[in-house]
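Quick one: examine this chain and its backbone structure tokens and tell me how the chain folds. Here goes:
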Amino acid sequence: MISFKREKRILVPTDFSAQADQAVLDALDMVADPSDLSVLHVAPPMSSYPVADPAIVWESITEEARSERIEESFRVHIKDPRAQAVHFAVAFGAPAEEIVDYAEAHEIDMIMMPSHGRSGLRRLLLGSVAERVVRAAHCPVIVLRN
């Protein structure tokens, strides 16, 4: 990985995959200060879950509670002590749109994100979050491939 330090704000979207974990570690190596790194997880909104599911007590689950649990998971999941200083956020909605909106709202200088490397029919059916972010972002986007 590139080993230069920059005075820039970097955003790394995470889905808690191994590729996203590596992107967080790579970004930590690139920033001068870990507080210049933001990590964003985009979760599906509560409205996307089936209302008729009797196994879930909807009234007790809030987006705030979900956000807190997701951040706790991140803080435990990434073992590098520098990760404790990063800004962690959770958004609810469509991943590409939320990533681009977060980057603009927080004046992010660069987005660094993994590509899961889907191709062919899987890419056509699932789309590519990385591709959509590259097309819509106001700042440079580094897409990491395995």
In short: The helical segments are 18-30, 63-77, 95-105, 120-126, 129-136. The chain has a mean pLDDT of 84. The chain has one domain: 10-144. The chain has five helices and five strands.
